Structures are given as C-alpha cells and as structure tokens.
Hints:
This protein is an alpha/beta fold. The protein folds into three domains: 13-118, no CATH class; 127-311, 3-Layer(aba) Sandwich (Rossmann fold); 327-394, Orthogonal Bundle (Arc Repressor Mutant, subunit A), CATH 1.10.10. Helices cover 44% and strands 12% of the residues. The chain has 17 helices and twelve strands. It has a nine-stranded mixed sheet, sandwiched between helices. A three-stranded antiparallel sheet has the order 10-12-11. The protein is elongated, with a radius of gyration of 31 Å.
Amino acid sequence: MTAAGGPAAGVPDAVRLARARLTRIVEPGWEVAGRWLCEFGAVETVRRIDGATGDAGGAEEPLPLPGVRPERWAGLVARAREAPPPERDLDRVAKLGARFVCPGDAEWPGQLDDLGDARPLGLWVRGGTNLRMWALRSVAVVGARACTDYGVRMGATLGSGLAERGWVVVSGGAYGVDAAAHRGALGARGATVAVLACGVDRVYPRGHAQLIDRVVEQGLVVGELPPGDHPTPSRFILRNRVIAALTRGTVVVEAAYRSGALGTARWAVRLGRHVMGVPGPVTSAVSAGVHELLRKEGVLVTDAEEVVELVGDMGELAPERRGPVLPRDLLPPDAARVLAALPAQGAHGVGEIAVAAGAGTDETIGRLYELRSLGFVERHGDGWQLTRQAIRSVFSEGEVP
C-alpha cells in the first residue's frame, strides 16, 4: 500500500488522491470530466475546482474548466467545498480491507478503458482478490428485480454453472436475478463480483447485508462512489456501463421493455461485447424485453455451456443438443422404409407393403422378419401389422389415426 492508501503501483499518490477526491465531486460516467482528465490530468483538474472554492490557498486563481455551464460549475464548486479530504475516504475504506484502484494500477482492468471519456475515475474495491485478473474471465448475469420463480432458477443455474467452469459471475447485487446469480456462484464455491451503485461500505438493498458479506468473503464488491454515498436512480443506470465493460459478455434473464438490465445489454452492444438472452414464455411481460433483445441483437442461450461457447476460448463448445434416440432411429435404411410403409391400424399383405415401401417382395419379406425379431411388427395369418410398442415409436403423440 502507498501512503495514500491505494494499491502499490506506478500511480503517484497525488494522482490517486486527486481521483479519489473527484469521486466526491463529479457523478460517475460524466464525459465532460473524462475530457478534463485527458486534457489537464487529475491533479490540475482538482486544483482548478478547489481554487474556485477559495480554499486552495494559491496566490493566483485558476481558470474555470471548459465545457460546462456556469450553474453546473457552481454546483461542482459547492460539492468540492463540502467534500471531506480524500485521505479520510482512503483511510475509511482501508479499515474495511478495501482500496481505491486507479487507471495505471496493476489491478486496473484495462477493458474499462473501452468506455473512453465515460471511464470510471477509479474503483473502490472491497475483497481480497485481484479485480483485473478476475475480470479477464468474467460474464455478467443480470435481469429483473421483480422476477418470477423461473427467473430465480435460471439466474442461480447460470451463476453456478459458470462458476463451476471457472468463470467469474458479475452482477449488481440487487433483488431478483442479480441476487440469484450471486448466490448460484457462491453456492458452487465460485467467484462473483457485485458492482454497487453506492459506496462499498454501504449495503443496498438493506435486505442483502448477509449476501454482500458473503460476496466480500468469497469475491469482490466494487463501486465508483466514495464511502458512505447513497444510490440514486441515475447511479443505477450509470453503474450498468461498468458491469458491461468489465465482462466478456452480458446475459439477460427476464427483463421487461423498460428494464435497467436492458441498459447493461445496450452498453455491451456499444462496447462490442457478447450479448445473450434467456427466453421465457411469450405471454410473460417480464420476458418481453429479453425477446425484443433476442430478435434484434442478442444470442439465445439456455445454460452455462452455451454462454461459455460464445464468450470462451476456442474449443470451449457446448454439447450438441438433440432429442432422444428412439429404437427406430437405429434401423438400417431399408428396414426403416418397410416399417414406415406399415399403416398404424390393421394387418396388411406383403405385396401391399412392398408397393408402399418401393421394394421387391422378397426383400420386403426379409425385412419384415427382421423387424419382427426386433419387436416392431407381428404376423397375423398372411398379414403383418405394427406392435403396440412400434406404434408408440413410429408415431408421435396425437398422430395415430
């Protein structure tokens, strides 16, 4: 750890402190602030904002930062005036075993840079594992808060299945599908990351205190907001871009037309990540958004194996899916043709069967005796007919005349 309380890396303490302070001043994902950092750097950006408060102590008042209206600038200055020193925030999270990870740190996930000017200023990280290494092999599983039992079951099944295959499950820690995905991964003794829309020292929703504690013990809790900050509707929406950027792909399990989970999927599309959806009943409003996603942009998946086939490395293929192999499927083609020529009801002569099968009489007789030895047909006098077992095998339910 450095003196500023961050992970040991090539990021100077002054830069880490400046970025930590900015998390108190600007909202996550604000692209104007991202452009300031590119043009002026974190230290100069903070110097200009603090200079406008009159508390910077400099002899020369710094110039305002460009690209912001006067009233917005006044709001930033007011926030800066009320914000505690960044050293206090860093010490506060350090007592929880947490840290502030910045771009340039060894632990910083490089894929977050794909967000451009909307890239996080930094991430507050709680938990003992390396975020960058986990993010390299991670999948987001998101969905409706007010989900059905089917959504809970699918979220948990995907979470456990991905964890069993060595993948990190990333979600938002919310009720519904998010919680199911986290619990599925935890139950499989796998890795999971909860990306919060509040400070990592807070629990939201409050009913998830035990779940968040388990995630901290077995995985990671991360967020852009400084300790103590509360969630807002806009912060949930902005949080979704981090979930999409951290992972190789996003799976949506149950989402209505107006759903934050679909926002995560839209960010994944924008970033060139894989986008997947789990289908539900076409009559279910809570799956309507998923179906629209699948119709336009997503790939249909039904289990963890299909997800891994899409986001994994070459050779990580899902097994070929097919229906059960029936006894008739194993028949030689000539025998199968004779079997198919027998109607479902009544006994029929060899000549009639041969004509229907397009085969000679002698060949048809030989095939009929072969089929009788296998239990498909039986002889009644001079005629042949299907056995009950064969009728069930040859005809699907509802097809028997």
